[in-house]
Amino acid sequence: MSDVIKLLPSHIANQIAAGEVVQRPASVVKELIENSIDAGADKIDLVVKDGGKTLVQVIDNGCGMSDTDARMSFERHATSKIAKADDLFALQTKGFRGEALASIAAIAHVSLKTKLHDAELGTEIINEGSKIVSQEAVMCSNGTSIAVKNLFFNVPARRNFLGKNSTEYRKVLDEFLRIALVHPGLHFTFHHDGEEIYNLPPSNLRQRIVQLYGDAYNERLVPINEETDIVKIYGFITKPNYSKSKPDQSFLFVNNRFFKDRYFNHAIVNAYEGLIASNKYPPYFVYFDVPTQSIDVNVHPTKTEIKFEENQAIYAFLRSAIKQALGQFNVAPTLDFEHESTFTTPALKKGETVKMPEIKVNPDYNPFNTGSSASSSSTKSAGVSGDVKSNGFSQIQPNKQDWENFYGEIEEEKHNEVTVSSSMDVDDEEVLSGETKKPVQIKEKYIMSSVKNGFILIDQYRAHMRILYDDLLGVNDNIQVQQLLFEERMELEKHDLPMWKEIVESINDLGFDCELEGDVLVIKGQPAVAKDQNPVVLIQGIFDTYQHDEQDESVEIKTKLARSIAANAALKGGTVLTIEEMQYIIDALFASSSPQIAPNGKKIIETFTMDEITKRFN
Ligand code: ADP
Ligand code: MG
User: Fold this and answer.
1) Residues of the chain with pLDDT under 70
2) 76 neighbors 99 (Cβ within 8 angstroms)
3) Do 534 and 579 fall into the same domain?
4) Ligand 1 atom 8: the closest Cα is on which residue?
């Protein structure tokens, strides 16, 4: 047999390598900005179009490159950062593999302009799919500008794999935030589709967080600052009552590099135990400094996991540092947060473990009591359609119906001499037409209703969700909007703006009356079916639920939104219902498109046949 092994041409090899380095526009953003930082820039501008699919451009005032270096920078394994393997252990730069530019150029149209500070002219290179198309001397400013256009133009499979613009935009933004949070001393700007998203002048860490997330954060932040032999931990956590329904502000950095770590995340969240609900996440910005030898530095450039030698000791130390900070915050809520924390922690030696400190907390402190109507709205009922909608639900009385009534109901049933057949056929029709007696609410969560052949338990929340969902999607044309007496202005996070833009029209189709004014959502009305709810809490809940749902591209926006609205507006467990309300739910449920299954796929009704019940007494 003849020889079959060939060396791949370099542009093909680059394309293959690119698959590892460049997954999406956000990876390009990361590589380019890291190069700018390595080049000593203190002003870095990021310009992105269409979530980065069309353009990612980074302009810096760093050292720039010579003509030859500019050309060399596109070669694989071309780097100015290390010369020998040993250099890896004393690495001061973010890059060192010399792979990024080669990989990016293999799968995009790249134009590079660069000039050394003491040179008169700079150089411009156009590189398309690893081919240098042109190189010429140009007038340009000091530093480097790299524009990466039409990502994956020559790898359609990869291009098709990219998400919607808004999805890619959010990934780009995440990457930008991670970098901006590590370099508060550098000036960054960020433009997307011609709009200025951020302009971040040099500042300190606290100000940088506030620049990124808004002035409100200033008083939410609690500093941490602890040091032992094996690790220095610093940064900010947030007061428990500002925890969020999604963990998108959980930032861990080690030696100025973002990383993800469920173990350390657990240490942090665990320190909040008892202060926040289990489905809430405290924003945090936590930085570790460790000796470079104690972590695995030779990690893959796109990986965000990092291995620590002293994992367990750091876990315990981290958790205790956060408990300390929170404990201090609780006993002294008026603490001046400009002061760094003053308590001392005994130095931790290598291999030593940490004992948890005793925390003094204010027993009256209630993190859920934010004083807004938000906290009370979950126990208030939402209106429902039908007759009850207009009045019934607002007259809810405390109601002690419970198991006593359950027995009472069965007694009553006996008196009524309902025929008990031995087989129960729970088809919806039969339940509907069945002898439905007075329903009973159980544990403020289930509605028990007797039916011909036994009884059923209805999950009140899921049932109401089904009813609202059908209302929202079924009678689209005459969805009733309840105008608010006073419009609500809801400040949105920049991060979420593209998604708000995407859904605001559909939200309005579903009974809201709201509009975007810059990064404020003005709410003027909400669906009549949810008229008793706090509109801001409702709409934030809808947004969060929608975001969870968003990945599923097969489902229409409106359907996903209806699901979110129904899930957020439906009567939660814990809401006491009157007989009429329960009756309404039962009737409306059985008139709905799918009485057995809630829009979230969960079971609504459980049936108990007389057969089963009788067996239990044997
Ligand atoms: P690495 O960063 O791993 O060295 P890259 O492919 O990212 O590899 O970059 C290759 C080389 O190009 C760098 O080592 C650096 O010398 C040069 N370079 C890249 N970007 C810039 C920039 N913005 N300013 C100055 N030099 C740069
Ligand atoms: Mg690099």
Assistant:
1) 1, 82-84, 87-92, 95-96, 297-304, 329-436, 475-478, 549-554
2) yes
3) yes
4) 98
